[in-house]
Amino acid sequence: MDSWLKGKTAIVIGERDGVQGPSIAKCLEAAGAKVVYAVTECFV
Amino acid sequence: MDPENQAQIKKISDGLEKIKSSNNLIVVLGASDLDGALISAETVTDGDPSFSGPLAGVSLKLPVYHILEPEIRDATPKEVYDENVGIWSLAVEPEKIEKIGKEFKAIREKISA
Fold first, then answer.
1. Residue A13 in contact with residue A41, Cβ under 8 Å?
2. Is the pTM above the cut of 0.90?
3. With an 8 Å Cβ cutoff, are A19 and B9 in contact?
4. Residues of B in contact with A16 (CB under 8 A)
5. pLDDT tens-digit readout, B53-76
6. Domain extents for chain A?
């Protein structure tokens, strides 16, 4: 069965002290979503 | 949320709106702290609550998810999820993950109402 994420366009806002942008993007892409923007925010 | 990221999100959303494809757009967050994640979620649905960034007063109503939510976890191939996020889903208490899921679901229901 296809994932509901298949065909979705995704914006990813990760966090340095949490789950980082590239890690989230890999998950979404593996599920069939198209990641158009992925970033890791850093609050200091 | 960083003003530069707000500007990018607005640009992407506006661009997809023009080609009538914005209903496919979602935002996925990875913040470790729930309050911070909820502020980011508010920013991409109701607008920047601090009124300092490009999304101030802009209500994009984008469906927003957290990477730890079951909706995302269950839709992702297990081996990829475990490799990239697994450590976090173990490090964060199950009660907190449940709370994140409830809060984000409520936000999505609010924008689709």
1. yes
2. yes
3. no
4. none
5. 999 999 999 999 999 999 999 999
6. 9-41
